[in-house]
Design brief:
Order of helices and strands: HEHEHEEHEHHHHHH
Strand order of the largest sheet: 2-1-3-5-4
Strand content: 5-15%
Radius of gyration: 27 Å
Distance between the termini: 94 Å
Number of strands: 5
Length: about 300
């Protein structure tokens, strides 16, 4: 009896210890809040239903709403931050912004890539760097398929709400950059990451050369198109030149974020390599099934010829 009692007591102690460890593990999973910047900010598109908002909270890992600041991005915000937009637009794109210490860099993660159809991580990162957002982790999500452009609005509003007002002109140029990037990807049929690589490389070259005239900007654009072996229509070439001339005219200093541009280049090139590998695999699969179909066709042809010869 004493032996059984001892075993039971041991089990109780072990279970209790396990519970304590579980609580500690759960506590450790909660990200520490940087008091300098306050709570992470979660911005929801105003069109979301209650169910969709709950889905977005799960996607953005909002386990405790008291640990984040929640705001809504509206059609009025869209008009306020992006010139020429419609205040009646439907807003689904949502984002979570966690500001970081200087030097930590900008990291963008689209947690629902299948639902953000026109914008990639690197496109967002490029536009945000242009807008003046440098050290932060930004997660983007949507419960349904959307282009993804309106997520910028929520990010801009988050910075305003957090007391860090962004430069209006830089935001406008960033919006234009995102539009140019998505248009090039659609019209020119380029891989989206190739477009991002082009934009990033031009920015890096502008940081190195610090062009003083539009002609120098045009030369940089032409050189990068040539070195990356990218052919664009005259109209799209001019779009690029005009975009980067605006950046030069408002004196965006990309030298300040050169390391982040270098990091972004590495991420883009890694993504392109993965894409090429996937394309190669797809081609091999396609070739395999083509050979199988051809073999079946040859088999039935030979059978037909065999019976034809018998007759």
């Amino acid at each position: 009896m004493k032996r059984i009692t001892a075993i039971l007591l041991t089990l109780v102690v072990l279970v209790g210890f396990s519970g304590i460890q579980s609580v500690k593990a759960a506590d450790n999973e909660t990200e520490s809040i940087n008091e300098k910047f306050g709570l992470p900010i979660v911005v929801y598109g105003e069109t979301l239903t209650t169910e969709q908002k709950q889905e977005v909270q799960k996607l953005l890992e909002v386990k405790d709403t008291s640990q984040v600041e929640e705001i809504i991005a509206t059609g009025e915000d869209l008009v306020n931050y992006i010139e020429g937009e419609d205040r009646n637009a439907r807003m689904f794109s949502s984002a979570k912004i966690t500001r970081k210490e200087k030097g930590e860099g900008l990291k963008v993660d689209i947690v629902t890539p299948a639902n953000i159809t026109e914008v990639t991580n690197s496109m967002y990162a490029n536009a945000l760097l242009t807008a003046g957002i440098e050290n932060a982790t930004v997660q983007v999500a949507s419960p349904i398929k959307v282009s993804g452009h309106s997520a910028l609005v929520g990010i801009y509003k988050a910075y305003d709400e957090g007391g860090e007002k962004l430069d209006t002109v830089r935001m406008e140029v960033a919006n234009e950059e995102l539009n140019v990037a998505t248009e090039l990807a659609k019209e020119e049929g380029m891989n989206q990451e190739k477009v991002s690589e082009l934009l990033t490389e031009i920015k890096k070259e502008m940081a190195d050369q610090n062009p003083a005239t539009k002609e120098e900007v045009e030369k940089i654009v032409e050189e990068k198109l040539k070195s990356l072996n990218i052919e664009l229509s005259p109209e799209d070439r001019q779009l690029l030149i005009d975009l980067f001339e605006k950046m030069r005219a408002i004196n965006i200093d990309f030298d300040n974020v050169k390391q982040q541009l270098e990091d972004l280049t590495s991420e883009i090139q890694s993504t392109i390599k993965d894409f090429v590998k996937d394309e190669g695999f797809g081609e091999k699969v396609s070739n395999f099934f083509s050979s199988v179909i051809q073999a079946i066709s040859d088999f039935f042809t030979s059978v037909a010829n065999f019976f034809k010869n018998l007759i």
